[in-house]
Amino acid sequence: MNCTRPFLGLRSLPCLALVVGLALFGCDGAVSKGAIDSGSAADAADSGGASVPSLGDPTFVVPSAGLPAEVTLGASNNNLDVAYHAGRTFLAFRSSKNHFASDGTVLWVVSSADEVVWRYEGHFAQGTDLREPRFFAWNGQLWLYYAVLGKDPADFEPQGSEAARWLGPGSWEGPKDVLSKDFIPWRVRLLPDGRPVMIGYQGGANVYRSTGGGLRIQLLTTADGWTWTPLVTEGKGLDGKGKGVSEGVVLEGGGSEADFALLPDGGLVLVVRNEAGDDSGYGAKVCRAEAADWSAFTCKPDPRKYDSPLLIQHGGGTWLIGRRSLKNDGKFDLGLANRSKDDRYIKYQTQWWSGPKRCSLWRVDALTLRVDFALDLPSAGDTCFASALPIPGAPHGYRVWNYTSPLDKPDISWLVGQLGQTSIYRVDLTLPSP
Question: Which of 100, 94, 99 is nearest to 71 (CA)?
Fold first, then answer.
């Protein structure tokens, strides 16, 4: 799920109104954009000269004059994915009245030969919320996966996942039910040996509850695009003895949204949003598995929370794009280990909701599992559900697609941004040479 919700998991707590009020109006004193951005930029500059990534200027696509007449937009345009297929760029995105669950949500799919003029390819609407669209171009075919959720704007209600296969302009096979009911697909990748890999998580109904926990991250594979089975079936598993491996489960606890990158030595690096929290704390986990055993991850906790993580492996380096908070040095976990779980949940969520956000690029050290800030993408208020594709003919270039609150207006909190207008853009990112 791209955004948490201010009421989730707090219905039984006496200070619900206080949490919502604090998130709306703030309680810790605003951190100015200039102050935190300039400090982060100084940190990034320490890496020096040609090693620093660079950005072009953003081009807004949703809304734009190039969209087909069939596409009707709400104020909120956010969760998205892109893919190259059949000589075109395909874009899928969610549009609704705001960022919260709604029975009026539509997933639109368009494609373009020039990323300016777009052709209508179809839409999915089921009278409930639809999110996390994920393309997979494989064996000359294009699949789209997405999560079906509920209608209640104050709850996160997984209803299953669906898949559709593109047959030609405006034509699809499906959608069909795939995966388990509470599985949320997060990313689909193709390994160099030709194996498809989907990463996602089970137990999503627990992500936004103060009790948390019980979430399981899985790695799955497929032979036909429709039926997904465990990728990892041998190894140490969750308890060091094989438990959970038969289901493809590689981590269990408070982790949900997660992405992985294949390292040059055959190992995996994993960045996990740990919003629900567990014995390691709250925020995120940065993990590594060696080539010999993808079921056994060594993880390092991080008090920052990289919502909607996207990993890019380039030139031997691992790069992360995810959401960044402008409050508390970007930390989600404020170190309140002596407080009750309910108290920590309220405090952490309140401070997270009451400040502006950015969509940012970090570099991940796959050996130390350290994450270092590099730069901010064009972003403000509510932002960050990025997808990226390599730019043909540009060996170090990636076209990043993302959404944001308006960039030409005063900065706003994340919560206010989720209630307002958001638009989708593309921007070219150049990563350092190896």
Answer: 94
pLDDT tens-digit profile of 228-262?
Answer: 999 988 777 776 667 677 889 999 999 999 999 99
Give the CB-side neighbour count of residue 419, counting CA atoms within 13 A: 10
Which three-class secondary structure state does DSSP give residue 129? Answer: coil
Cβ 331 vs Cβ 344: under 8 Å? no
- 131 in Cβ contact with 149 (< 8 Å): yes
Distance of alpha carbon 333 from alpha carbon 302, whole angstroms:
8
Torsion sign, CA atoms 400, 401, 403, 404 = positive
pTM of this prediction exceeds 0.85: yes
Hey, is 408 helix, strand or coil? coil
In this structure, are residues 130 and 185 in contact, taking their beta carbons and an 8 Å threshold?
Answer: no
| CA 232 from centroid of its chain's CA atoms | 23
What does the block give as tokens for 182?
Answer: 């509470």
Q: Any idea what DSSP says for residue 171?
A: E
Q: Where are the alpha helices (DSSP H) in 147-305?
A: none
What is the rounded distance in angstroms from the CA atom of residue 328 to the CA atom of residue 334? 8
For residue 286, list its beta bridge partners.
Answer: 271, 300
Distance CA 25, CA 197 (A): 42
Q: How does pLDDT run across 77-106, given as a tens digit for each residue?
A: 999 999 999 999 999 999 999 999 999 999
DSSP string, 256-273: -SEEEEE-TTS-EEEEEE
- What spatial distance separates the first Cα and last Cα of the chain, rounded to whole Å? 33
CA distance 251 to 25: 36
CATH architecture of 16-74+182-430: 6 Propeller (2.120)
| pLDDT tier, 48 (very low <50, low <70, confident <90, very high otherwise) | very low
**Rounded Cα–Cα distance for residues 350 and 405 (Å):** 20
What is the band of 273 on the pLDDT scale with cuts at 50, 70, 90?
A: very high
Task: Provide the token pair at 308.
Answer: 């909607």
Average pLDDT over every residue of 210-230: 89
Tokens encoding 188: 């689909």
